[in-house]
Specification:
This protein is mainly alpha-helical. The chain contains 13 helices and 4 strands. A two-stranded antiparallel sheet has the order 1-4. A two-stranded antiparallel ribbon has the order 2-3.
């Protein structure tokens, strides 16, 4: 990539980044197609509308977390706190609703809490010069402890129908009443979490590819010293990436807690590993400087379909953890081989 003797990213660098991303996205997309075909053969009900909507709902949370992780990973960092920040943000939203705050401002408060946690991560990393692994590991413990302390380790329930609309609602849902008085779903609609994921993914892709801050994020991860010498405010760029990661974790927390219609302080455990796996499977390099939102979305659906297909095949949750663990190791190994080449 770039070195300290030339501008931080020239045309050749961008061509190399784009070529590598396209190749990796193509292989990840092929993997996704093969998974769909394999699970469809194994279970007749896998390839159905209802199961497809279930996969969309399950993937939306990992996808939102994965987008934030992608921004951080491209800068050359890591964020292990997103699962705990998700739980804390959801708890803040739930407690705000219990206090009488309307649902939308309450959920905004949860997102702000997530952004604050991310900004704190960025401050510790850039100003205190603590490695990202250690800094975000500390935030993981802080956020989880705060969520448990605020709730007394008990779920915050009875949040009302309005609180569950984001996670359980759908656009264009068609329901008709039958003669017996019971409703029948004619068309389940497009889940709101899936629409939200699409909007956030498009916005993040636009920022990375079309805005100056996106170029700065790639430059920081590609060669931090070269970027600094070229006038990039590296510290501010990292602050931005970690703040966005925290904010998206807060948004994911709202989606998950809304689906449950309960704020669970114990939710989000190990979600950070799924999010990191989604980003790496999609082509993001843990060495920094490489990654795309489109690739991360493909990686997120690979994780979501893998979990869903294994569930429908009757594979136990413990075996699923083993499989996902091997997938994570394999993705990181491929990343290391790619970097050596």
């Amino acid at each position: 990539m770039a070195d300290a003797s030339k501008p931080w990213l020239d045309a050749g660098d961008w061509k190399l980044i784009i070529a590598r991303d396209r190749l990796h996205r193509a292989s990840a997309l092929l993997t996704l197609v093969l998974l769909v075909i394999g699970f469809s053969i194994a279970s007749a009900s896998f390839f159905s509308v209802n199961n497809g909507l279930t996969i969309l709902l399950q993937t939306s949370v990992i996808g939102l977390l994965g987008i934030g992780l992608t921004l951080v990973i491209i800068t050359g960092g890591i964020d292990l706190s997103v699962g705990s920040v998700l739980a804390l943000s959801g708890v803040i939203s739930g407690l705000a609703v219990k206090m009488g705050v309307p649902v939308v401002p309450a959920m905004c408060a949860g997102v702000v809490m997530g952004a604050a946690c991310g900004a704190f991560n960025g401050f510790v990393i850039t100003k205190m010069r603590i490695p990202p692994f250690v800094a975000t590991l500390g935030m993981m413990l802080i956020a989880r402890g705060a969520a448990l302390q605020l709730t007394g380790a008990a779920p915050v329930s009875r949040l009302g129908e309005a609180f569950g609309r984001l996670g359980n609602g759908a656009l264009f849902r068609i329901v008709e009443m039958q003669p017996n008085g019971f409703p029948r779903v004619v068309f389940p609609g497009i889940p709101y979490p899936a629409i939200l994921l699409l909007v956030v993914a498009l916005a993040a892709a636009y920022i990375l590819r079309r805005r100056q801050i996106g170029r700065h994020i790639y430059a920081t991860g590609s060669n931090e010293e070269a970027a600094r010498l070229s006038g990039v405010n590296v510290d501010w760029t990292k602050m931005y990436a970690y703040t966005m990661s925290g904010a998206l974790a807060g948004l994911a927390g709202n989606v998950l807690m809304s689906r449950l219609v309960t704020a669970q302080p114990s939710e989000g455990v190990m979600y950070e590993l799924d999010a990191i796996a989604a980003a790496v499977i999609g082509g993001a390099s843990l060495s920094g400087g490489v990654g795309t939102i489109a690739g991360t979305m493909i990686g997120a659906f690979i994780i979501g379909i893998l979990r869903n297909g294994l569930n429908m095949s009757g594979v136990s949750a413990f075996i699923q953890q083993i499989v996902i663990g091997f997938v994570v190791i394999g993705a990181v190994w491929i990343d290391q081989v790619r970097n050596r080449r």
